[in-house]
TrEMBL record:
Organism: Corynebacterium gerontici
Record's bilayer topology term: Multi-pass membrane protein
GO cellular component, one term: plasma membrane
Domain of life from the UniProt record: Bacteria
Protein name: Small-conductance mechanosensitive channel
Name of the coding gene: mscS
């Protein structure tokens, strides 16, 4: 009975496993892990190429999922090596131990795991993508990298910002370059409301000669408000969705409209406003 109890004691099991360990078995275990590492690298290489060329996944997505496959292979190789070197350790015991460790790690690294799972979701749905120009809260810029934990953004002022994927997943994200064209608005206050129709005609004609503004949909100028004898004219036009294209078109549009209004003798201002990708 005492022998059975000793065999069932975890401490005695560990002592017996260590005492029975030989250099030959240890060498075989190292070889198993090394072979698993090589196979893992091969799996990563092949899967990465297949995801990009056959499944048409993005490079960031393919890199992440092929890396996960590589580590799964390596983990299986380590488990196989342990069961060979320590025959008393059964696979079911390893699985049970991993379950306990996973629960403990989940509690201790809840934020890290949350960002990782959010990264998996972002990489799987492929929105947003590396190269997209986005805005998340006060951060606006171009995505330069997406990995399992963070999304890296290079702001339009040249700064690098690392955003946790959990924040990206739960926040409202504006992808400015998701479509080729975006609409930009700016308001011009016409000092005398009776000049609005003439101002509308002048503004639309002024935009016809501005480079970077689409002919279709055509630029429009609409009446938004009349107050205190002044008419608020909203000028709308479509241009390239990239930040520099939008800013350049907006600059040229404001200069063209205000210049032509002045030439036509139409008084405007103050409190003119600008809005990117405005409402309906």
């Amino acid at each position: 009975m005492s022998l059975i109890l000793a065999a069932d004691n975890p401490t005695d099991q560990v002592q017996q496993a260590v005492q029975s360990l030989t250099w030959h078995d240890l060498g075989i275990g190292v070889v198993i892990i090394a072979v698993g590492a090589v196979i893992g690298w091969i799996v990563k290489f092949i899967l990465n190429k297949a995801l990009v060329k056959i499944a048409h996944r993005t490079k960031a997505s393919a890199r992440a999922f092929s890396s996960i496959a590589q580590w799964v292979v390596i983990a299986l190789a380590i488990a196989a090596a342990i069961t060979y070197v320590f025959p008393s350790v059964k696979p079911v015991n390893l699985i049970g131990g991993l379950g306990v460790v996973s629960i403990a790690a989940g509690i201790a690294f809840q934020t890290v795991l949350g960002n990782t799972f959010a990264g998996l979701v972002i990489l799987m749905r492929e929105t947003p993508l590396v190269g997209d120009q986005i805005q998340i809260g006060d951060v606006a810029g171009t995505i330069t990298d997406i990995n399992l934990s963070t999304t890296t953004v290079r702001t339009f002022s040249g700064r690098q910002v690392l955003i946790p994927n959990g924040t990206v997943h739960t926040s409202i994200v504006t992808v400015q370059t998701r479509h080729e064209w975006v609409r930009t608005n700016f308001d011009v206050k016409i000092r005398h409301a009776e000049d609005f129709e003439k101002a509308r005609e002048v503004a639309v004609k002024a935009l016809d000669r501005v480079e970077g503004i689409l002919e279709s949909p055509a630029p429009v100028a609409v009446l938004r408000q009349v107050a205190d004898g002044m008419a608020t004219m909203e000028v709308r036009f479509w241009s390239g969705s990239k930040q520099m294209d939008t800013v350049a078109a907006l600059d040229a549009a404001i200069v063209a409209v205000t210049t032509d209004l002045s030439k036509a003798g139409i008084e405007f201002g103050p409190d003119n406003t600008v809005m990117f990708a405005g409402g309906e």
